[in-house]
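Subject: Sanity check before I submit

Could someone independently write out the structure tokens for this chain? I want to compare against mine line by line before I put it in a report. The sequence has 188 residues.
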Amino acid sequence: MQLILASTSPYRRALLQRLDLSFEQASPGFEEATPGSMPPDELVEHNTLGKARSVLNIAPHATIIASDQIAVCGDIVLGKPGTIARAEQQLQLLSGKRVTFLTGLCVLDADSCRYELIPYHVCFRTLSRSEISRYVALEQPLECAGSFKSEGLGISLFDKMEGHDPTALIGLPLIRLSQWLRPLELRS
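---
Independent answer below. Compare away.
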């Protein structure tokens, strides 16, 4: 069985490699909806399923894994910052606050679709402007929702983390994914 990760993210690739499965990566031919265009849970589902379906269209006999993530702070939805200035602005907003990260996970093939929204919460400590600038300059978290990399120096920005699957925070919830893939008896 062909397994395809519908993502070009090196972080998601590294996470999936931890499950010791043989898989390919494909760039989804899908234009993601942007934060603010729909409610957060619908946005994540729309983008996750869109990525999976776009790859299934070019590999109809494969099993596709896709995910998407946004950060929600109060009623503000944050995606990837894209620039240093926006990364610093996001971290200033998140300083001292509890933030919910919503990660959508989908496993799709020609016959079935499984989807789940997996929340994970991070409590940021109060951050100074100089800490934020230094962090962003060092780690360049421009392609990360919330402007940090918890698998790196970003962990030092937190007071605590709350959730069932810490890999959801990095962008691919491995606990749920491995539960879904186990019955397929995939081998590397």
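---
OP: Matches mine. For the report I'm noting this point. Strands lie at 3-6, 24-26, 63-73, 76-78, 98-108, 113-124, 158-162.
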